[in-house]
Write a structure and sequence with these properties.
Blueprint lengths: L12 H11 L3 E2 L4 E2 L1 H16 L2 E4 L3 E5 L9 E2 L18 E6 L5 E3 L2 E4 L4 E8 L8 E12 L8 E7 L7 E6 L3 E9 L10 E8 L11 E16 L16 H14 L1
Parallel strand pairs: 5-9
Antiparallel strand pairs: 1-2, 3-15, 4-9, 6-15, 7-8, 9-14, 10-13, 10-15, 11-12, 11-14
């Protein structure tokens, strides 16, 4: 469809504007050039941004933990740092850690008579940035793998807290481990992300009575993030640094200026 623009012919202006809105086609006789492609894609991209606006956020800190609230127990052993579990590289990088159960505490005639203690290591992830946005849906996501242990009390667990660690909810806890997978949990859209925390832990079984060997378990984490989708734009708090390029007021003014320009 080609709509011609004629100077001083106001009766044709409605057709020109309708053609631009529906098809992006404008052939301007005065400048002898086709401008439909740029305008059409501008419209598509802005409309898509307004409809499908997402926000992905990650915790900025992780620290070793002695908490048993994540699902593991025993004698606590410090866990190594997990910097790649929440970096900007997403699923391209990962961090991992493992723990083994304690050794036999007493042997008699070559047999263990005082078993080793179960041991566990845990890591806490927190310090999400605050968001000035309101979402139609909000999820917490953890991409991880556990190799699993071979004794009954070897295990790995994932858990989260919405109230700065006062209470915890289990995401998964398994003795046999799991393949690499993303566990997704829906959380309240009005959640204060500064109070969101994630805990991971692994537990190794102590050396058993009689003989054998201590158990162990490990966990590998690629990424931890929240995803807010289909935004309902509010006015960002002053100084928050949150920008809303898809704010309806901005789009409305932009749209009006474009129509007036043609």
């Amino acid at each position: 469809m080609i709509v011609y623009r004629h100077e001083n012919n106001h009766g044709k202006q409605w057709a020109y504007k309708l053609g631009w809105i529906l098809f992006g086609w404008v052939y301007d006789i005065r400048y002898d050039r086709c401008r439909w492609f740029l305008r059409l894609w501008t419209l598509i991209l802005c409309t898509a941004g307004l409809t499908f606006g997402d926000e992905l956020l990650r915790p900025s800190a992780d620290a070793t933990s002695s908490a048993t609230s994540y699902g593991c127990s025993g004698t606590n052993v410090a866990f190594t740092s997990f910097p790649n579990a929440h970096d900007a590289a997403g699923l391209s990088t990962s961090s991992s850690g493992s723990v083994s159960g304690g050794g036999c505490r007493k042997f008699t005639n070559g047999e263990c008579v005082v078993p080793g203690a179960n041991q566990f290591s845990a890591r806490l992830f927190n310090t999400w940035p605050s968001s000035g946005n309101t979402w139609a849906s909000l999820t917490l996501n953890i991409n991880s793998l556990s190799s699993g242990g071979f004794l009954s009390q070897d295990s790995a667990c994932l858990a989260y807290s919405l109230n700065s660690g006062m209470t915890w909810t289990s995401i998964r806890c398994a003795q046999g481990g799991w393949i690499q997978v993303t566990n997704t949990v829906s959380i309240p859209v009005a959640q204060d992300l500064t109070k969101l925390q994630v805990g991971i832990c692994v537990q190794g079984t102590g050396f058993p009575i009689g003989g054998g060997s201590s158990g162990s378990d490990s966990i590998q984490v690629w990424d931890i993030w929240t995803l807010g989708t289909n935004n309902v734009p509010p006015t960002p708090p002053a100084g928050s640094g949150t920008s809303r390029p898809t704010d309806p007021v901005i789009i409305s003014r932009w749209w009006q200026q474009l129509l007036e320009s043609v």
